[in-house]
């Protein structure tokens, strides 16, 4: 048997769910580890270095939102995929998940085959993006997709995966205005349901790190990257 294509960490406090997801993911060739609470999830992620974390919200010791925040704060884990799989259907829970860097938010119950399909879609989109232009250098801003690094006037800045992709996409299309829906479709994809507010949150975080000169808000329309 060949090397598994991707590593997945499954986090849930219900043992039957862990066993079901682990079985179905391994059957599809993924290398899988599990954790049953948020603290264990963070520790395992830092040791296991997964390509994707499948994360519940309501868990003992540390909830999934805080676990996601801590995983994203770990430099070597900033660019992995984090997908919430939860029974929490409230809008505030979904907003909180995307605010800390979720790539997808899926409501339980979901059939294992449908879940595997969603996970594979994330990896396919990521593969396609890696095959596009790899470096943009404009107005003192260097964006390098191969290393997921950014330099502003020669100072290196760290951005989580979705913030990086949002900036890279806008910089690839300078002076073109994109609506929130355009950005949601191009960055998060059509098979992921994300609130429009998520775009505003990510834009705000990018500006906090690179400054306000590069991305302009076009009132009532959306955002554009300024070609300086």
Labels describing this entry:
five-stranded parallel beta sheet; 2 domains; globular; Rossmann fold; 8 helices; single chain; 21% strand; four-stranded antiparallel beta sheet; 228 residues; Arc Repressor Mutant, subunit A; 12 strands; alpha/beta
Q: How would you state the average pLDDT, rounded? A: 86
CATH topology of the largest domain: Rossmann fold
Q: What does the largest sheet look like?
A: 5 strands, parallel
The CATH class of the largest domain is identified as Alpha Beta
The percentage helix is: 40-55%
What is the number of domains?
2
Principal-axes geometry comes out as: globular
Biggest sheet: strands side by side, in what order?
A: 2-1-3-4-5
Give the C-alpha Rg.
18 Å
Q: SSE order in H/E notation? A: EHEHEHEHEHEEEEHEHHEE
Class by alpha and beta content:
alpha/beta
Low-confidence stretches: none
CATH architecture term of the largest domain? 3-Layer(aba) Sandwich
In what range is the share of β-strand residues? 15-25%
Distance between the termini: 52 Å
Tell me how many strands there are: 12
> How many H/I helices?
8
CATH H-level homologous superfamily name of the largest domain = Response regulator
């Amino acid at each position: 048997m060949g090397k598994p294509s991707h590593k997945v960490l499954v986090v849930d406090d219900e043992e039957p769910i862990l066993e079901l997801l682990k079985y179905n993911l391994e059957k599809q060739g993924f290398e899988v580890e599990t954790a049953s609470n948020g603290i264990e999830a963070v520790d395992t992620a830092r040791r296991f270095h997964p390509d994707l974390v499948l994360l519940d919200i309501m868990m003992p010791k540390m909830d999934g939102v805080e676990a996601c925040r801590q995983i994203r704060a770990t430099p070597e884990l900033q660019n992995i995929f984090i997908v919430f799989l939860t029974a929490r259907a409230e809008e505030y829970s979904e907003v909180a998940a995307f605010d800390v860097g979720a790539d997808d938010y899926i409501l339980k119950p979901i059939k294992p085959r449908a879940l595997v399909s969603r996970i594979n879609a994330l990896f396919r989109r990521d593969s396609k993006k890696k095959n596009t232009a790899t470096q943009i250098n404009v107005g003192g801003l260097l964006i390098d997709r191969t290393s997921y690094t950014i330099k502003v006037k020669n100072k290196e800045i760290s951005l989580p995966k979705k913030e990086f992709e949002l900036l890279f996409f806008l910089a690839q299309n300078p002076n073109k205005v994109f609506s929130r829906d355009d950005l949601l479709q191009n960055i998060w994809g059509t098979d992921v349901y994300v609130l429009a507010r998520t775009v505003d949150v990510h834009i705000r975080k990018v500006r906090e790190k690179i400054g306000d000169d590069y991305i302009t808000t076009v009132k009532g329309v959306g955002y554009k990257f300024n070609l300086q």
